[in-house]
Amino acid sequence: MGSGKWVLNLVKPFQGILPEVEQAKRKVQINEKIMWTAIVLFVFLICAQIPLAGLRFGRPDGNDPFYFMRTLLASNRGTLMELGISPIVTSGLVMQLLVGAKLIEVGNDKDDKALFQSAQKLLGIIITIIEAVAYVVSGMYGNVGVGEDDIGAGAALLIIFQLVFAGIIVLCLDELLQKGWGLGSGISLFIATNICENIMWQTFSPEKGRSGGFQGALVALFHLLMTRQDRLRALQEAFYRADDTNVTNLLATVLVFLLVVFFQGFAVRVRIKHANAGKGVEDTKKIKLFYTSNMPIILLTALVSNVHFFSSILHRKFPENRIVGLFGRWDAPEMNPTAAQQRPVAGLAYYLTAPVNITAMVSDPIHAIVYIAFMLTACSLLSRMWIEVSGSSAKDVARQMKEQKQVMPGFRDSSIQRRLEPKITTAATLGGLCIGAMTIIADFMGAIGSGTGILLAVTTIYEYYETIKSEQQGDSFSFRSLLGK
């Protein structure tokens, strides 16, 4: 028995007690899938509005280390969805790295895959507990003590229980969609919903912003044009205001949106046919440039968010420690008293975060260079690694084609994997590289919701469009259907 098998076998005693959604054993019709997807989204949105019980004054205290990543983590401060998808994505990232390092060995039979999924679920629950305890102990909801201004041990335990319970709900909601009852994955659905909501709010919000005007870019534009006599100055302020979302940010968002849609169409076509089909009866399937879709950027977001979280906690507890400074130093209130939240100003957390704007990039070119190199390299590597653990490698595709009695005209069954290997590997590597590049471009252009957010939203929406279209046509095989399984 290999060492990887031995590690997975440790999970067997826990399989019976882990919450599980049963795999759909019948063909679920498209209308029913849409219904279950809507129910999953509704439950998530409700949980994102239910405040945590036990908070002092009904709201959390202190600085929020996840402030700039809340949308990408599908989380909402001070609610049951405080942790969002962070635990489930982090567990997926850890398991992927373990498989890539050959520390875990997953076979092709159903038992091995079920065991791997159970291991990932168990790890997700453990990470949920660790993050919940870390949130409370770090003082994000107030000091844990018996003083008049402290939340107390009872409230601390209550908050931890709620966070863990909500984390398990997220795991089950995602599994409900993954097991064939709904469309896509819960992770992508929750992220896309949060990002679209944020973009709409930043565009049309009637609330007052930090600049004194309206927060929404379009609302501010029309208000300035109607109230200012100097129309040129009004346009200039609407396009370039610094403290709130401006029209330039909105145009950058639209441009990135169109770029992502454009690159979605890049694909290599592979000729296939059913083994029993007559001569000349062929079909073509596409291996898309974005073969691994948005998974590389989701995994990268989980990695960076955890670096932010733990570096922020360590800096708060040990601000003068040099080793802690290597992981990240955050601006103090006296350094940035007007900022809504602290930002990393040095260390690993700083270099893994996009420069605020072009001016910041020019003033610190080393930061920009390190960030660009990190994004391109990490997205490319994660994309390559993901095809091996998600069941979408050339070997997996060739096996599924054989099971469905599909062949590539002119090639033997034994050579299909060899023919698919360069196409799929190139698509995964180059696609991850392009995703990283577009994320960087969008960040530097100041697009609403960050480049990462726009990419996640567009790719998810496009996936749902393709999935619904495929379901309606009764397509029995698709390379896209392999992703995320």
Core attributes:
mainly alpha, Preprotein translocase SecY subunit, three-stranded antiparallel beta sheet, 18 helices, 5 strands, 60% helix, disordered C terminus
Overview of the structural elements:
This protein has 485 residues and is mainly α. It has 2 domains: 1-20 and 28-183, Preprotein translocase SecY subunit (Orthogonal Bundle), CATH 1.10.3370; 263-485, SecY subunit domain (Preprotein translocase SecY subunit, Orthogonal Bundle). Helix content is 60%, strand content 4%. It contains 18 helices and 5 strands. It has helices spanning 3-9, 12-15, 30-47, 86-100, 110-137, 152-181, 186-204, 217-227, 231-240, 247-264, 295-317, 322-327, 347-351, 358-363, 365-389, 394-403, 413-445, 450-473, and strands spanning 267-274, 283-288, 329-330, 344-346, 406-407. It has a 3-stranded antiparallel β-sheet. Helix 4 packs across helix 15 and helix 10 runs antiparallel to helix 17 (413-445).
